[in-house]
Amino acid sequence: MKKLMIVLSSVSLVLLTAVPSFAQDSSNVRLLGFCDTQCAYGVAVAGQYAYVADAGDSSGLRVINITNPAAPSEVGFCGTPGGALGVAVSGNYAYVEASGLRVINITNPSSPTEVGFYVTPGEPIGVAVSGNYAYVADWDYGLRVVNITNPAAPYEVGFYDTPGSAWGVTVQGNYAYVADGLMGGLRVVNISNPTALFEVGFYDTPGQAWDVAVSGNLAYVADFNYFGIYDCSAATTVPEAGHVVIPARFALHAPFPNPFNPATNIVFDLPEPGSVTVKVFDLMGREVAVLVNGEKPAGQHTISFDARDLPSGVYVCRMTANEFTASHKMMLIR
Predict the structure, then answer these.
(1) Residues 121-149: what's their mean pLDDT?
(2) Partners of residue 281 on adjacent β-strands
(3) What gap in Å lies between CA 122 and CA 93, rounded to an integer?
(4) Count of CA atoms in the C-beta half-sphere (13 A) of 241
(5) CATH, range 251-332
(6) What is the CA radius of gyration of the chain?
(7) Eight-state DSSP code of residue 125
């Protein structure tokens, strides 16, 4: 079994998951206590509790009381479908990566209860929470942004399809830092508008980027056979007023809000100037609105779709720019 280990260093008290080993390789670190788990993959600490994402046969969130570091004890458990691989805690909720994003109420640590979930398109591994949003590292489907304002009904508002396989994510200010696996390295993504993410910098790390932590302008990357420290100050410097950030690729972002009534915002990215059309169709394929039809400069563009004269239902927004085509479904609810 893997165990939740509590160790005391000369700096601070920390929690970590590790295969049991009682040998010491440093006189400055000593074991204080441990608690059996099945297959602990992720951990977050808040107050007197550690919250462990356990991917064992009994997968789920384990709540460990760490008031006495010498005798940590499990006080609560909430089962999840699939293996629980990551966890973040904010306020009264834990956000667990297990066959999607699971929102678990931890107000009563002895009785954690799932109150909502959102099934992401990929295999979620890492999660970070900032404000009203959860940022999910979703393996082959990149970085997903989930609105968690209503814990019972989380929903996706935006995404950025990273070139690799998103394993880990951390958020600081207006930026998400993504550890993007073997092919992607470190990606720095602007999240100032959660519905329209865009990359501002990257570094092709020499190994396989599995996780990332950030302090100030420095990103610390766990890179399989390597550990790297990267200066991201140039990528995260606020542009001067009037400066236009040019996106790295064409993109049509998810409409926001969605569902909507009666209007929603549609954001698209152009890495170069060109002819653009943005049209809306019903599910029968009939054109119901033309939002853009003409030349547009490079940059990020936002348009509003007002559907007050249309009946409730599902509509498709389709964008064409040069040889790029993309579409998103959106639901009008009266």
Answers:
(1) 94
(2) 287, 316
(3) 23
(4) 0
(5) 2.60.40.3080
(6) 22
(7) -
State the residue for tokens 């019972």: 152
Task: Compute CA distances 123 → 78, 138, 222, 230, whole Å.
Answer: 20, 5, 20, 27
Query: Within 10 A of 115 (CB to CB), how many other CB atoms are there?
Result: 16
Gap between the Cα atoms of 62 and 256, Å rounded: 34
Q: Where in the chain is the domain with CATH 2.60.40.3080?
A: 251-332
Tokens of 23: 């040998």
Residue 199 has pLDDT above 90, yes or no: no
* CATH domain 3-236 topology: Methylamine Dehydrogenase; Chain H (2.130.10)
Residues of the chain with CATH 2.130.10.10: 3-236
Report phi then psi at 166, rounded to 5: -70, 115
Strand partners, 282: 315
Q: To which H or E segment does residue 236 belong? A: helix 233-236
Give me the DSSP letters along 151-192.
TTS-EEEEEE--SS-B-EEEEETTEEEEE-HHHH-EEEEE-S
**Residue written as tokens 């109150």?**
115
Residue 101 scores a pLDDT above 90: yes
What is the token pair recorded at 215? 């302090």
Which tokens sit at 265? 């915002």
Q: Return the number of other C-beta atoms located less than 10 Å from residue 183's C-beta.
A: 12
- The number of angstroms, rounded, from the C-alpha of 109 to the middle of its chain's C-alpha atoms is 24
What is the C-alpha separation between 198 and 302, in angstroms, rounded? 14
pLDDT in tens, 258-310: 889 998 889 899 999 999 999 999 999 999 999 999 999 998 888 999 999 99
Q: Within the chain, what is the greatest distance between any pair of CA atoms?
A: 73
* SS3 of residue 184 by DSSP: helix
Name the DSSP class of 24.
-
